[in-house]
# Entry
Amino acid sequence: MVQAGYDYSRWEETYAPEPAREERRQSRKALINRNARRNMAIKLSVIVFAYALLLVYLCIKSATLGYEIVGLENEINKLNTENNRMEYAIAQNSSLDIIEEKAITQLGMIIPGTEMCYAVAAVDEPVTPALKVEAVDNTIAESKPLAKLYASIMLLTGKTNL
# Structure
């Protein structure tokens, strides 16, 4: 047997359970303190790493926005140049000399001159009035001013009998 090879005669002197327990307690406390410090260091390093990632992301985002802004400014400059070219073309094509030349060549119009006169004979057509106005007796109107005013109003309205 295995126990036969061991000497247990001095087991009281060698066995000291109390100091061993204290050492274990102290080692556990030290282990807990070391673990707490290690956990704190790990948490702190994770936080620092996350913060660094956030900073890198924000730097990349600001750089891409800067490139987009520069691209949009270039596009605005191109559009302004194109607008200026179109305004120049419109101004050039709307000048009176160009319009006159296009009217003659493309539309077949003729420049009027003094030798180009046309006489048109007017036909006399009798005019028929829409209302027939009867002659008003002005003898009464000459003697009294109110009667004259009344006769003028009747003449304008075309009514002779009221």
Notes: Confidence is low (pLDDT under 50) at residues 20-24. The CA atoms of residues 24 and 30 lie 10 Å apart. Helices lie at 11-14, 17-93, 96-105, 138-143, 145-157. The chain has two domains: 10-104, 127-162.
